[in-house]
Give the backbone structure.
Amino acid sequence: MSTTADLTPGFMVLHGDRPEALLDLLTQWVARHPLAPLDNEVVLVQSNGVAQWLRRCLAAEPAEGGLGVAAALETLLPARFIWDAYRAVLGAGRVPTVSPFDRTLLLWRLMRLLPALMPQDDFAPLRRFMADDGDGRRRFQLAQRVADLFDQYQVYRADWLADWAAGEDVVALARGGRPPVPEAMRWQAVLWRALRQDVGPLQADSGRADVHRLFLQAATDPAADRPAGLPARLLVFGISSLPQQSLEVLAHLARWVQVLMFVHNPSRHDWSHIVADRDLLRAQMRRQRPRGPALPDAQPLHAHGHPLLAAWGKQGRDFIALVDAHDEHESYAGRFAAIGQRIDCFTPEDRPAPTRLLAQLQD
């Protein structure tokens, strides 16, 4: 049964090449360390389909690897949980229930603002698309695309939005430098400022990027007490990719919450070096060569890497690299070893080769 130490907060990452093995590890941990009777088990999932599969497997009989019942189980999508975590840490008074810059709300706000902004010179690229839009269908399509674009910017390009809000029409580059916004996308900076003005000064800083910055400040305050409303344990299962912003939230919540992330990793070995065909060709055709010490030749890295991982695995590779940046497995590996479990549950390499065609393809 569980003890207080079993629910010690922390960020724990468990890797495996088969979802069934990861689920078995999750089931064992939950069974050994149950929560208090009135606490919900909170699980972040990538889709409702994964949530249903997880519920069905947990409700299976113990002889079949389940718990016998799946009750008090709350499955959430990452975006919804992270916004609720912002409200828990910063307070409901500082963070609205729904951000005024949420994609759904942005859509209708843009539908109203775009016609008045179109005559401006910066919006010339959009006027061509909006020409001959008698029934408003193109305006709706444009508003959908722009709302999705700004929603992505709040997660991945918060620095751009901060500069635009401050009146600086620049784009910060990952390699350094802040060149001016290209003429073809200057309308984006103007439109973002118009959206903030339309929202009003009281809620202009309620976008995801601004709230995330405030969250990091509060979560790193050594004098901060445990916020009310956070779960005792958070399980992250079946999610193939998360942005850096979301991983930062999970890592900082681990100050108060026991966070277990179950990562589907196709290889037990480090595969961050694998080079795809197109990347190898691009490197060979590059005009300028890297400066400094000689780098490893990409040809052997390409030859010894799995071609499917190289071709299809870039997103997963980048995700695992982000997770590793927050992972300190030495701090928790012993807790699993003490109960006969491992934090890496990969299929043994010396297993018999599969005989069925489908199993060979999966392998």
